[in-house]
Recover the amino acids of this structure.
């Protein structure tokens, strides 16, 4: 099974360009793995907020605020980037913003009380917003690189590279955390170093992307003269009925990605506060979860192109429902490991399938714009999922088991909204645009 087979790439696309594109997934995954999932999330709740009843809600509120900012701005940014062939320029700007904000998280343990909570929340909002911009823009390059028949494979390679990058960042951080704990050093000592490690890996690996990945799009002067990004975005919304399958995909994405967002943002908190994991065990858990996700993304990328993106995504949503039920019922660490393993395989495959479906249904001249709309859906999902989890936890007096079980409803809704999508009809609509 050759990596980056030429049959999956568009004519004229070189393998080094695809490697450069995949390296951005490698670069930015350390941010979600270390900051959002494994290290800073749990430290914010237990260290900065001192385990207060509102702590999980405050964490999800900070993330939701960043997602709301991205929702309101990314579609217009995508339309602007399409009109001016500026995806790569905006990607560089977003990367620099996230890297510096992530590094700045290292200073948060130096503050206490309300000021520490406010500073941490502000930096998470900024860093996560820039991360989201970068994720959307790098996705918009996918249809320029892959053929319609190879979209699943190439998307799967990217996600697989991403999980490897996440494992590298987390592995280095885990080694440092274990060393620090052996010396009796507190979390306030080792958490800042993990933030700096994550920022350096993100910035360094992203440079490979900036060197190898070209901007293939051409400026669209005629459309720019007709009113610019906002006018183009309004025109797309008015024509939404012509892209009904894409719109069904967005609705499906809001639901199932809401559940995925719960796993990404709250897995460490749930493992430590409900199951009884300690920090080092949580990091090992997330590390193994990333291995499973990488395998899921890579293998399902090939399966998608054989059996279809829609069928592949449906299968992963069924697996996600099982994850929620198992996680809500188990009481032992061993039992939770089973849920985590299934979640890892499902995470890689569902995210790969969603991105490939978006690239398949997006008009070739409006890639950044349509990926901006996809980002709108994923970020709305990232508000709905974690915020509802935090609210249910708060309203039930801290019962996270009820909250995680309720997350299964999001995956059921996503499965139902997936049914009306006709991929061939949606592809033809995109080509007519």
């Amino acid at each position: 099974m050759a990596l980056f087979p030429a049959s999956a790439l568009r004519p004229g696309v070189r393998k080094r360009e695809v490697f450069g594109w995949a390296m951005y997934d490698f670069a930015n995954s350390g941010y979600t793995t270390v900051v959002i999932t494994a290290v800073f999330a749990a430290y914010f709740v237990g260290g900065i907020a001192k385990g207060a009843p509102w702590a999980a809600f405050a964490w999800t509120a900070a993330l939701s605020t960043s997602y709301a900012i991205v929702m309101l701005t990314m579609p217009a940014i995508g339309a602007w980037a399409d009109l001016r062939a500026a995806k790569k320029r905006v990607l560089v700007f977003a990367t620099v913003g996230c890297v510096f904000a992530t590094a700045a998280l290292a200073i948060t343990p130096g503050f206490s009380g309300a000021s520490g909570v406010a500073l941490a929340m502000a930096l998470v909002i900024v860093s996560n917003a820039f991360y989201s911009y970068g994720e959307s823009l790098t996705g918009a390059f996918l249809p320029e690189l892959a053929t319609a028949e190879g979209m699943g494979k190439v998307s799967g390679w990217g996600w697989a590279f991403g999980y490897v990058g996440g494992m590298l960042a987390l592995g280095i951080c885990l080694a440092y955390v274990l060393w620090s704990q052996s010396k009796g050093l507190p979390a306030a000592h080792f958490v800042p170093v993990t933030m700096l490690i994550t920022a350096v890996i993100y910035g360094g690996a992203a440079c490979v992307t900036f060197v190898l990945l070209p901007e293939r799009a051409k400026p669209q002067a005629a459309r720019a003269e007709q009113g610019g990004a906002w006018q183009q975005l309004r025109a797309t919304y008015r024509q939404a009925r012509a892209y009904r399958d894409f719109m069904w995909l967005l609705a499906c994405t809001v639901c199932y990605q809401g559940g995925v967002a719960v796993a990404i943002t709250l897995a460490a908190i749930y493992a430590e506060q409900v199951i009884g994991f300690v920090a080092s065990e949580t990091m090992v858990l997330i590390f193994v979860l990333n291995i499973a996700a990488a395998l899921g993304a890579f293998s399902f990328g090939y399966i998608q192109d054989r059996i279809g993106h829609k069928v592949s995504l449906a299968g992963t949503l069924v697996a996600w429902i099982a994850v929620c039920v198992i996680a809500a019922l188990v009481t032992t660490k061993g039992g939770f490991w089973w849920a985590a393993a299934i979640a890892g395989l499902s995470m890689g495959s569902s995210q790969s399938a969603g991105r490939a479906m978006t690239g398949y249904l997006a008009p070739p001249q409006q890639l950044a714009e349509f990926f901006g709309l996809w980002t709108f859906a994923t970020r709305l999902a990232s508000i709905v999922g974690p915020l509802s989890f935090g609210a249910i936890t708060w309203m039930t007096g801290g019962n996270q088991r009820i909250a995680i079980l309720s997350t299964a409803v999001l995956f059921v809704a996503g499965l139902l909204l997936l049914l009306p999508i006709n991929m061939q009809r949606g592809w033809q609509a995109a080509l007519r645009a």
Summary: The chain has 18 helices and no strands. The radius of gyration is 20 Å.
